[in-house]
From TrEMBL:
InterPro entries documented for this protein: Acyl_transf_3_dom, Acyltransferase_3
Transmembrane segments: 7-26, 46-67, 88-112, 132-153, 165-184, 196-217, 238-255, 267-286, 307-323, 335-357
Polar residues compositional bias, start-end: 386-395
Region (Disordered), start-end ranges: 371-403
Coiled coil: none
Annotated Acyltransferase domain residues: 6-350
Organism (species): Kribbella rubisoli
UniProt KW keywords: Membrane, Transmembrane, Transmembrane helix
An example Gene Ontology molecular-function term: acyltransferase activity, transferring groups other than amino-acyl groups
Designated name of the protein: Peptidoglycan/LPS O-acetylase OafA/YrhL
Lineage, highest ranks first: Bacteria, Bacillati, Actinomycetota, Actinomycetes, Propionibacteriales
Length: 403
């Protein structure tokens, strides 16, 4: 049975808002200086939240099939659906950036082609204005491609058992540590481009995969975790812990706010802190209280979840155009002057894109006239195949730092 985790709609909208806010903060200089610099600089943690949601929703169908003894999700439809979800808006954004934003002579059509194929993080070249946040989508696609193999390794061939579930949950601690170690290593050896690749963020996806295994095992009576259940009943406590961890990340422990390279230790701690923040943000949304479900998974959350991918894809283009229209000079403050119009216009553009282009394409490609990324239904955690920025029957951005 497909299930819907409606509270994740609102959570991914929060992630998109966080990414937009940190980029406006950088452009205005508010994330570099001022009383809220640390908080604005660290809102790129929205990327970690997105990755954790994707890990959960991508992996869960495989785990559920393992427990139910049913066939695994097929790879070809899964890849088709991912392409239907991400490519239309991506290609529109690349075209808009090329046509509407100024660029230097060395930003040629080849650079835009790399962004359209999400290969830009593996090749040297200048950044394209309005598209720098797409590094995270490139990383996500790498995870998409590896997911069928990772899910098979996680679920194995034998039948589920309490000991097997516990061993697998323990094994997922390895990728959680791989990310911080990778980021520390590439920082120490001076290979910043490698800091955009999947190994640096695999722990964020692993958090979601671990929650998928925990949730399904708990549902089938294989796990009794009274402590976690108690925490699920007091989501405010867990989300407060996420805020506390975010405040810790605003200290020098997690490195500088600007684009200056952190030390190896700072890179390690920042990635680890973001992993913990993503876990604390995601967990209460998996078994939400009625109030949390209404707030995050109600009508407003549903719509915000639908357009969150578009907000992510288009917001830097909108920000660039707002700066041109207003004659804004980079790093000259006045955060709200850029934030409010960028947020409103990005949401409107994303809504037009989703309801006018993206959803019709997905419905046509899936041959499902009723398909929606976030189906409107009861706002309960349980019974949809939604995902973070894609969908899951299967199935959703600057490195820790600015995009």
């Amino acid at each position: 049975m497909k299930v819907r985790f409606a509270a994740l709609d609102g959570l991914r909208a929060i992630g998109a808002l966080a990414v937009l806010t940190t980029h406006v903060g950088f452009h205005t200089g508010a994330s570099l200086n001022g009383p809220f610099a640390g908080l604005l600089a660290r809102l790129d943690v929205g990327v970690a939240i997105f990755f954790a949601i994707s890990g959960f929703l991508l992996c869960r169908p495989h785990v559920a099939a393992w427990f139910d003894g049913t066939p695994r999700p097929r790879t070809t439809p899964y890849l088709r659906n991912r392409a239907l979800r991400i490519l239309p808006a991506l290609w529109i954004a690349v075209l808009l950036a090329a046509l509407l934003l100024p660029h230097s002579a060395d930003v040629t059509w080849v650079i835009y082609l790399r962004h359209a194929t999400l290969t830009q993080i593996y090749l040297d070249g200048p950044p394209a204005d309005g598209l720098t946040q797409l590094w995270s989508l490139s990383t996500e696609v790498a995870f998409y491609l590896l997911l069928p193999l990772l899910a098979r390794l996680l679920t194995g061939r034998g039948r589920p058992s309490r000991r097997g579930v516990a061993a697998r949950l323990f094994a997922l601690a390895v990728p959680v540590l791989v990310g911080p170690v990778w980021m520390a290593s590439i920082t120490a050896t001076g290979h910043p481009r490698a800091g955009l690749w999947l190994p640096g963020y695999v722990g964020w996806f692993a958090i979601g995969m671990g929650f998928a295994l925990w949730q399904v095992a708990r549902q089938h009576g294989f796990l009794t975790t009274p402590t976690l259940q108690t925490l699920a009943n007091v989501p405010g406590t867990v989300w407060t812990a996420a805020v506390a961890l975010l405040l810790i990340a605003t200290t020098p422990l997690a490195g500088p706010y600007n684009l200056t390279a952190p030390s190896a230790g700072q890179a390690f701690m920042k990635t680890l802190l973001y992993t913990a923040i993503a876990a604390c943000a995601l967990f209460p949304a998996l078994t939400p209280t009625p109030r949390s479900a209404r707030v995050l998974g109600g009508r407003a959350g549903h719509v915000a979840g639908d357009i969150s991918y578009g907000v992510f894809v288009y917001h830097l283009i909108v920000l660039g155009l707002v700066e041109r229209v207003t004659g804004y000079t980079l790093f000259s403050g006045r955060f709200l002057l850029l934030f409010l119009p960028t947020l409103v216009i990005s949401a409107l553009v994303a809504a037009a894109s989703y309801y006018g282009i993206e959803r019709p394409i997905m419905r046509l490609g899936r041959r499902d006239r009723s398909y929606d990324v976030s189906p409107a239904s009861s706002a309960n955690a349980e019974p949809n195949s939604t995902d973070a920025w894609t969908a899951t029957e299967v199935t959703p951005a600057s490195p820790p730092g600015q995009g």
